[in-house]
Amino acid sequence: xxxxxxxxxxxxxxxxxxxxxxxxxxxxxxxxxxxxxxxxxxxxxxxxxxxxxxxxxxxxxxxxxxxxxxxxxxxxxxxxxxxxxxxxxxxxxxxxxxxxxxxxxxxxxxxxxxxxxxxxxxxxxxxxxxxxxxxxxxxxxxxxxxxxxxxxxxxxxxxxxxxxxxxxxxxxxxxxxxxxxxxxxxxxxxxxxxxxxxxxxxxxxxxxxxxxxxxxxxxxxxxxxxxxxxxxxxxxxxxxxxxxxxxxxxxxxxxxxxxxxxxxxxxxxxxxxxxxxxxxxxxxxxxxxxxxxxxxxxxxxxxxxxxxxxxxxxxxxxxxxxxxxxxxxxxxxxxxxx
Length: 338
Known about the structure:
There is one protein chain. The chain is an alpha/beta fold. It has two domains: about 5-180, NAD(P)-binding Rossmann-like Domain (Rossmann fold, 3-Layer(aba) Sandwich); about 185-330, N-(1-d-carboxylethyl)-l-norvaline Dehydrogenase, domain 2, CATH 1.10.1040. It is built from 13 helices and 14 strands. The protein has helices spanning about 10-20, 35-40, 80-90, 110-115, 140-145, 160-170, 180-205, 205-210, 215-235, 255-270, 285-300, 305-315, 320-330; strands at about 5, 25-30, 45-50, 50-55, 60, 70-75, 95-100, 120-125, 130, 135-140, 150-155, 175-180, 240, 245. An eight-stranded mixed beta sheet has the order 5-2-1-6-7-8-11-12. A four-stranded mixed beta sheet has the order 4-3-10-9, with helices on one face. The protein starts with a strand and ends in a 6-residue tail after the last helix. This is 2-dehydropantoate 2-reductase. InterPro entries: 6PGD_dom2, KPA_reductase, KPR_N, NAD(P)-bd_dom_sf. Pfam families: ApbA, ApbA_C.
Protein backbone atom coordinates (compact mmCIF):
# COMPACT_ATOMS: atom_id res chain seq x y z
CA UNK A 1 0.00 0.00 0.00
CA UNK A 2 1.51 3.29 -1.17
CA UNK A 3 -0.06 6.22 0.70
CA UNK A 4 0.18 9.99 0.29
CA UNK A 5 -1.10 12.49 2.86
CA UNK A 6 -1.59 15.89 1.24
CA UNK A 7 -1.46 18.86 3.59
CA UNK A 8 1.08 19.43 6.38
CA UNK A 9 -1.72 20.52 8.73
CA UNK A 10 -2.04 19.37 12.32
CA UNK A 11 -4.41 16.53 11.39
CA UNK A 12 -2.53 15.67 8.20
CA UNK A 13 0.76 15.37 10.08
CA UNK A 14 -0.88 13.34 12.84
CA UNK A 15 -2.34 10.81 10.42
CA UNK A 16 0.90 10.63 8.41
CA UNK A 17 2.91 9.95 11.57
CA UNK A 18 0.56 7.19 12.73
CA UNK A 19 0.42 5.56 9.30
CA UNK A 20 4.21 5.59 9.03
CA UNK A 21 4.43 3.43 12.16
CA UNK A 22 2.33 0.82 10.31
CA UNK A 23 3.12 1.17 6.59
CA UNK A 24 6.52 1.51 4.94
CA UNK A 25 5.52 3.73 2.02
CA UNK A 26 3.93 6.90 3.40
CA UNK A 27 4.63 10.33 1.89
CA UNK A 28 3.63 13.74 3.27
CA UNK A 29 2.89 16.23 0.49
CA UNK A 30 2.41 19.99 0.67
CA UNK A 31 2.33 22.99 -1.64
CA UNK A 32 4.87 24.82 0.53
CA UNK A 33 8.47 23.71 0.88
CA UNK A 34 9.22 25.19 4.34
CA UNK A 35 7.26 22.70 6.50
CA UNK A 36 8.53 19.80 4.40
CA UNK A 37 12.15 20.86 4.92
CA UNK A 38 11.60 20.99 8.68
CA UNK A 39 9.99 17.54 8.69
CA UNK A 40 12.76 16.13 6.52
CA UNK A 41 15.30 17.46 9.02
CA UNK A 42 13.52 16.69 12.30
CA UNK A 43 10.85 14.12 11.44
CA UNK A 44 7.33 14.43 12.89
CA UNK A 45 7.12 14.74 16.65
CA UNK A 46 3.72 13.84 18.16
CA UNK A 47 3.11 15.04 21.72
CA UNK A 48 0.17 15.59 24.05
CA UNK A 49 -2.25 12.75 24.72
CA UNK A 50 0.36 10.37 23.28
CA UNK A 51 4.04 10.83 22.46
CA UNK A 52 6.14 9.35 19.67
CA UNK A 53 8.41 10.44 16.85
CA UNK A 54 8.71 9.39 13.21
CA UNK A 55 12.07 10.20 11.67
CA UNK A 56 12.04 8.63 8.24
CA UNK A 57 8.86 9.84 6.57
CA UNK A 58 9.19 10.85 2.92
CA UNK A 59 8.19 14.40 1.93
CA UNK A 60 7.37 15.87 -1.48
CA UNK A 61 5.97 19.07 -2.89
CA UNK A 62 2.74 18.79 -4.87
CA UNK A 63 4.72 19.21 -8.09
CA UNK A 64 6.76 16.10 -7.17
CA UNK A 65 3.70 13.92 -6.61
CA UNK A 66 4.16 10.45 -8.09
CA UNK A 67 1.67 8.52 -10.20
CA UNK A 68 1.48 5.17 -8.44
CA UNK A 69 -0.20 5.94 -5.11
CA UNK A 70 -2.90 3.52 -3.98
CA UNK A 71 -4.48 5.91 -1.46
CA UNK A 72 -4.43 9.69 -1.04
CA UNK A 73 -5.73 11.54 2.03
CA UNK A 74 -6.35 15.26 1.41
CA UNK A 75 -6.07 17.67 4.35
CA UNK A 76 -4.95 20.81 2.52
CA UNK A 77 -7.19 23.91 2.83
CA UNK A 78 -9.98 23.93 0.25
CA UNK A 79 -8.89 27.34 -1.00
CA UNK A 80 -5.84 25.63 -2.55
CA UNK A 81 -7.95 23.21 -4.64
CA UNK A 82 -7.76 25.23 -7.85
CA UNK A 83 -3.97 24.91 -7.77
CA UNK A 84 -3.64 21.48 -6.18
CA UNK A 85 -6.33 19.37 -7.83
CA UNK A 86 -5.06 19.67 -11.43
CA UNK A 87 -1.62 18.51 -10.23
CA UNK A 88 -3.11 15.44 -8.59
CA UNK A 89 -5.66 14.59 -11.29
CA UNK A 90 -3.09 14.70 -14.09
CA UNK A 91 -0.81 12.15 -12.41
CA UNK A 92 -2.67 9.56 -10.37
CA UNK A 93 -3.96 6.23 -11.62
CA UNK A 94 -7.67 5.43 -11.95
CA UNK A 95 -7.62 2.92 -9.09
CA UNK A 96 -6.17 5.39 -6.57
CA UNK A 97 -8.59 5.97 -3.70
CA UNK A 98 -9.17 9.63 -2.75
CA UNK A 99 -10.26 10.53 0.80
CA UNK A 100 -11.12 14.18 1.43
CA UNK A 101 -10.68 15.38 5.00
CA UNK A 102 -11.03 18.97 3.85
CA UNK A 103 -13.19 21.15 6.06
CA UNK A 104 -16.08 22.28 3.91
CA UNK A 105 -19.83 21.89 3.55
CA UNK A 106 -19.54 19.55 0.57
CA UNK A 107 -16.87 17.67 -1.37
CA UNK A 108 -18.66 18.33 -4.65
CA UNK A 109 -15.56 19.84 -6.27
CA UNK A 110 -13.51 16.78 -5.36
CA UNK A 111 -16.16 14.52 -6.88
CA UNK A 112 -16.30 16.58 -10.08
CA UNK A 113 -12.51 16.62 -10.42
CA UNK A 114 -11.72 12.96 -9.76
CA UNK A 115 -14.32 11.32 -11.97
CA UNK A 116 -12.23 8.18 -12.61
CA UNK A 117 -11.22 7.49 -9.01
CA UNK A 118 -13.26 6.25 -6.03
CA UNK A 119 -13.79 9.33 -3.82
CA UNK A 120 -14.68 9.35 -0.13
CA UNK A 121 -15.59 12.08 2.35
CA UNK A 122 -14.17 11.95 5.86
CA UNK A 123 -13.86 14.03 9.03
CA UNK A 124 -11.63 13.87 12.11
CA UNK A 125 -13.22 13.91 15.56
CA UNK A 126 -10.02 14.43 17.54
CA UNK A 127 -8.30 17.79 17.98
CA UNK A 128 -4.65 18.50 17.23
CA UNK A 129 -2.60 21.69 16.95
CA UNK A 130 0.79 22.54 15.51
CA UNK A 131 3.38 23.60 18.06
CA UNK A 132 5.97 24.22 15.33
CA UNK A 133 6.54 23.09 11.74
CA UNK A 134 7.44 19.53 12.78
CA UNK A 135 5.63 19.04 16.12
CA UNK A 136 1.93 18.31 16.49
CA UNK A 137 0.08 18.12 19.80
CA UNK A 138 -2.94 15.83 20.17
CA UNK A 139 -5.21 17.65 22.63
CA UNK A 140 -8.06 15.13 22.75
CA UNK A 141 -7.88 12.48 25.46
CA UNK A 142 -6.98 9.02 24.20
CA UNK A 143 -10.19 7.37 25.42
CA UNK A 144 -12.26 9.62 23.16
CA UNK A 145 -9.70 9.20 20.37
CA UNK A 146 -10.00 5.41 20.46
CA UNK A 147 -13.82 5.54 20.68
CA UNK A 148 -14.48 7.81 17.69
CA UNK A 149 -11.58 9.24 15.69
CA UNK A 150 -12.99 9.39 12.14
CA UNK A 151 -16.16 9.32 10.06
CA UNK A 152 -15.92 7.94 6.52
CA UNK A 153 -18.46 8.04 3.69
CA UNK A 154 -18.50 6.61 0.16
CA UNK A 155 -19.90 9.63 -1.66
CA UNK A 156 -21.50 7.70 -4.51
CA UNK A 157 -22.15 4.49 -2.54
CA UNK A 158 -20.40 2.54 -5.31
CA UNK A 159 -17.22 1.31 -3.64
CA UNK A 160 -18.05 -0.76 -0.53
CA UNK A 161 -14.88 -2.85 -0.72
CA UNK A 162 -12.69 0.24 -1.01
CA UNK A 163 -14.57 1.81 1.92
CA UNK A 164 -13.94 -1.28 4.03
CA UNK A 165 -10.23 -1.20 3.12
CA UNK A 166 -9.89 2.49 4.05
CA UNK A 167 -11.80 1.94 7.29
CA UNK A 168 -9.41 -0.87 8.20
CA UNK A 169 -6.45 1.46 7.62
CA UNK A 170 -7.95 4.29 9.68
CA UNK A 171 -9.07 1.90 12.43
CA UNK A 172 -5.41 1.18 13.11
CA UNK A 173 -5.14 4.85 14.15
CA UNK A 174 -8.52 5.34 15.87
CA UNK A 175 -12.04 3.97 15.60
CA UNK A 176 -13.70 4.84 12.28
CA UNK A 177 -17.44 4.92 11.65
CA UNK A 178 -18.89 4.34 8.17
CA UNK A 179 -21.84 6.54 7.23
CA UNK A 180 -24.00 6.90 4.14
CA UNK A 181 -24.56 10.68 4.33
CA UNK A 182 -21.55 12.79 3.31
CA UNK A 183 -23.36 16.10 3.81
CA UNK A 184 -24.35 14.91 7.27
CA UNK A 185 -20.77 14.43 8.47
CA UNK A 186 -19.42 17.58 6.80
CA UNK A 187 -22.10 19.86 8.27
CA UNK A 188 -21.81 18.22 11.68
CA UNK A 189 -18.06 18.73 11.69
CA UNK A 190 -18.62 22.32 10.59
CA UNK A 191 -20.96 22.90 13.53
CA UNK A 192 -18.29 21.81 16.01
CA UNK A 193 -15.57 23.72 14.18
CA UNK A 194 -17.59 26.93 14.02
CA UNK A 195 -19.14 26.92 17.48
CA UNK A 196 -15.99 25.89 19.31
CA UNK A 197 -12.83 25.84 17.16
CA UNK A 198 -13.38 29.10 15.23
CA UNK A 199 -14.77 30.78 18.34
CA UNK A 200 -11.56 29.77 20.11
CA UNK A 201 -9.62 31.41 17.27
CA UNK A 202 -11.71 34.59 17.37
CA UNK A 203 -11.34 34.93 21.14
CA UNK A 204 -7.66 33.92 21.28
CA UNK A 205 -8.37 31.29 23.90
CA UNK A 206 -8.40 27.55 24.48
CA UNK A 207 -11.47 25.33 24.26
CA UNK A 208 -11.27 25.10 28.05
CA UNK A 209 -11.61 28.86 28.34
CA UNK A 210 -14.91 28.62 26.43
CA UNK A 211 -15.95 25.76 28.69
CA UNK A 212 -15.39 27.79 31.87
CA UNK A 213 -16.56 31.25 30.73
CA UNK A 214 -20.35 31.65 30.79
CA UNK A 215 -20.60 34.25 28.00
CA UNK A 216 -18.25 32.31 25.72
CA UNK A 217 -20.14 29.05 26.34
CA UNK A 218 -23.51 30.69 25.65
CA UNK A 219 -22.05 32.22 22.48
CA UNK A 220 -20.97 28.76 21.31
CA UNK A 221 -24.50 27.46 21.90
CA UNK A 222 -26.06 30.31 19.93
CA UNK A 223 -23.64 29.75 17.02
CA UNK A 224 -24.64 26.09 16.98
CA UNK A 225 -28.31 27.08 17.08
CA UNK A 226 -27.89 29.23 13.95
CA UNK A 227 -26.15 26.39 12.10
CA UNK A 228 -28.78 23.80 13.10
CA UNK A 229 -31.59 26.13 11.99
CA UNK A 230 -29.85 26.66 8.64
CA UNK A 231 -29.34 22.90 8.22
CA UNK A 232 -32.99 22.17 9.00
CA UNK A 233 -34.16 24.70 6.40
CA UNK A 234 -31.93 22.94 3.87
CA UNK A 235 -33.27 19.51 4.91
CA UNK A 236 -29.87 18.38 6.15
CA UNK A 237 -29.85 15.80 8.94
CA UNK A 238 -26.92 16.22 11.31
CA UNK A 239 -25.13 13.38 13.08
CA UNK A 240 -24.72 12.22 16.64
CA UNK A 241 -21.17 12.90 17.82
CA UNK A 242 -19.63 12.78 21.26
CA UNK A 243 -22.91 11.50 22.68
CA UNK A 244 -24.90 14.52 21.43
CA UNK A 245 -27.46 14.57 18.64
CA UNK A 246 -26.51 17.73 16.76
CA UNK A 247 -30.06 18.08 15.38
CA UNK A 248 -31.18 18.85 18.95
CA UNK A 249 -28.70 21.71 19.48
CA UNK A 250 -31.39 24.29 18.87
CA UNK A 251 -32.96 26.81 21.24
CA UNK A 252 -36.75 26.60 21.01
CA UNK A 253 -39.81 26.18 23.17
CA UNK A 254 -38.93 22.57 23.86
CA UNK A 255 -35.23 23.03 24.50
CA UNK A 256 -34.21 25.86 26.81
CA UNK A 257 -30.83 27.53 26.56
CA UNK A 258 -29.92 26.28 30.04
CA UNK A 259 -30.57 22.69 29.01
CA UNK A 260 -27.93 22.90 26.28
CA UNK A 261 -25.18 24.06 28.65
CA UNK A 262 -24.32 20.56 30.00
CA UNK A 263 -24.52 19.16 26.45
CA UNK A 264 -21.87 21.60 25.27
CA UNK A 265 -19.78 21.03 28.38
CA UNK A 266 -19.79 17.32 27.47
CA UNK A 267 -18.77 18.11 23.87
CA UNK A 268 -15.90 20.41 24.83
CA UNK A 269 -14.48 18.56 27.84
CA UNK A 270 -12.47 15.85 25.95
CA UNK A 271 -10.77 18.62 23.92
CA UNK A 272 -10.45 21.32 26.60
CA UNK A 273 -6.68 21.72 26.24
CA UNK A 274 -6.89 22.56 22.54
CA UNK A 275 -5.77 26.02 21.53
CA UNK A 276 -6.42 26.74 17.89
CA UNK A 277 -4.08 27.89 15.15
CA UNK A 278 -0.81 28.36 16.94
CA UNK A 279 1.15 28.73 13.72
CA UNK A 280 0.61 31.37 11.06
CA UNK A 281 0.88 28.59 8.48
CA UNK A 282 -2.37 27.13 9.80
CA UNK A 283 -4.19 30.38 10.49
CA UNK A 284 -7.90 30.94 10.41
CA UNK A 285 -10.00 29.18 7.87
CA UNK A 286 -12.51 32.00 7.38
CA UNK A 287 -13.97 30.16 4.41
CA UNK A 288 -16.17 27.81 6.41
CA UNK A 289 -17.79 30.63 8.44
CA UNK A 290 -18.35 32.73 5.33
CA UNK A 291 -19.84 29.68 3.56
CA UNK A 292 -22.25 29.16 6.44
CA UNK A 293 -23.37 32.79 6.34
CA UNK A 294 -23.94 32.46 2.59
CA UNK A 295 -25.98 29.29 3.03
CA UNK A 296 -28.05 30.94 5.77
CA UNK A 297 -28.82 33.90 3.52
CA UNK A 298 -30.17 31.52 0.88
CA UNK A 299 -32.81 30.24 3.32
CA UNK A 300 -33.46 33.56 5.09
CA UNK A 301 -31.91 32.43 8.36
CA UNK A 302 -30.64 35.32 10.54
CA UNK A 303 -27.09 34.71 11.83
CA UNK A 304 -26.04 37.57 14.14
CA UNK A 305 -23.58 35.34 16.03
CA UNK A 306 -21.97 33.92 12.89
CA UNK A 307 -21.79 37.43 11.41
CA UNK A 308 -19.94 38.73 14.47
CA UNK A 309 -17.71 35.64 14.57
CA UNK A 310 -16.74 36.24 10.94
CA UNK A 311 -15.98 39.89 11.69
CA UNK A 312 -13.73 38.94 14.61
CA UNK A 313 -11.85 36.35 12.56
CA UNK A 314 -11.30 38.73 9.67
CA UNK A 315 -10.43 41.90 11.53
CA UNK A 316 -9.99 41.42 15.30
CA UNK A 317 -8.19 38.10 15.71
CA UNK A 318 -5.14 39.60 17.42
CA UNK A 319 -7.11 41.24 20.23
CA UNK A 320 -7.12 39.64 23.71
CA UNK A 321 -9.91 37.41 24.95
CA UNK A 322 -11.60 39.95 27.24
CA UNK A 323 -11.96 42.52 24.45
CA UNK A 324 -13.52 40.23 21.84
CA UNK A 325 -15.82 38.40 24.24
CA UNK A 326 -17.33 41.76 25.22
CA UNK A 327 -18.60 42.14 21.66
CA UNK A 328 -20.86 39.11 22.11
CA UNK A 329 -22.34 40.25 25.43
CA UNK A 330 -25.02 42.52 23.89
CA UNK A 331 -26.20 39.59 21.77
CA UNK A 332 -26.34 37.35 24.81
CA UNK A 333 -28.33 39.99 26.67
CA UNK A 334 -30.77 40.23 23.78
CA UNK A 335 -29.64 43.65 22.56
CA UNK A 336 -28.80 44.64 19.00
CA UNK A 337 -25.27 45.67 18.11
CA UNK A 338 -25.00 49.09 16.50
